[in-house]
Write a structure and sequence with these properties.
The chain is mainly β. It contains 2 helices and 18 strands.
């Protein structure tokens, strides 16, 4: 069955002949072919030149996966098309993407869903629907609140330098900082991370003292870093 947005739902062997378009060739794709990703990962295609007929390109794209979630297209620029699920991909599944002779496959791992609750100072991680670890956390202080919403892990870094100047706070300010954080997962484009914060362990579970990040103890942050994939969802609720 052809869905209006050009994706295909059904068993893993469902296929659809590609529609011939004037779309330029696909120069790169994310996730990379064969990569294991989280269940909220978007599919991003970058073309070799600007796409003149965006509608035809969207109609020609097919996504084959069991129990395909709903989703939507977004053009990040003239050469880059993203399809992002509004729900989650099925866990432990193969996703096949085809467009005018181009084909790629990626797989999802376990469904690793992190839920940060600001009011209770907890970060709860479920794996395939079962709570795996309920961790004390510290989120953003009232002047620098952690944004509420549905996010996904954009990148994982064993260590990352965090500099307050990137969010408009001079190093000379009483609020200024330049630190090296460990076991860090970035979840949005403004620099919010889940990461190890040994300096806030006493506040984790009872107070929100960060500049917007989700602070965990070193042990809990290492555990999460070792089980999460790029593309796994992080839900922040009040």
């Amino acid at each position: 069955m052809v869905i209006a947005i050009g994706a295909v739902a059904g068993p893993a062997n469902t296929s659809l002949a590609a529609v011939t378009t004037s779309t330029p060739r696909v120069a790169s794709v994310q996730p990379a072919p064969g990569e294991a990703v989280g269940v909220a990962a978007p599919i991003v295609l970058t073309f070799s030149q600007p796409v003149a007929d965006r509608g035809a390109t969207e109609r020609a794209l097919t996504i084959t996966v069991p129990n395909r979630p709903s989703g939507q297209f977004e053009w990040l620029n003239d050469e880059t098309l993203q399809w992002k699920p509004t729900g989650f991909w099925p866990a432990h599944s193969r996703i096949t993407v085809t467009l005018d002779g181009f084909k790629t496959d990626v797989t999802t791992g376990a469904s690793v869903v992190g839920v940060a609750t600001i009011s209770t100072h907890r970060f709860v991680v479920s794996i395939d629907g079962q709570v795996a670890r309920d961790m004390p956390a510290s989120m953003g202080k009232p002047t620098r609140p952690t944004p509420v919403g549905n996010f996904s892990v954009l990148e994982r870094d064993r260590t990352v330098v965090m500099d307050s100047r990137t969010i408009g706070i001079p190093l000379s300010s009483p609020e200024g900082y330049r630190i090296t954080a460990s076991y860090a997962e970035r979840i949005n484009d403004t620099g919010v991370y889940v990461h190890s914060a040994p300096w806030s362990v006493d506040s984790q579970g009872n107070a929100n003292v960060s500049h917007g990040c989700i602070n965990l103890s070193p042990d809990n942050a290492a555990w999460y870093y070792n089980i999460v994939h790029v593309g796994d969802p992080v839900i922040v609720q009040s």
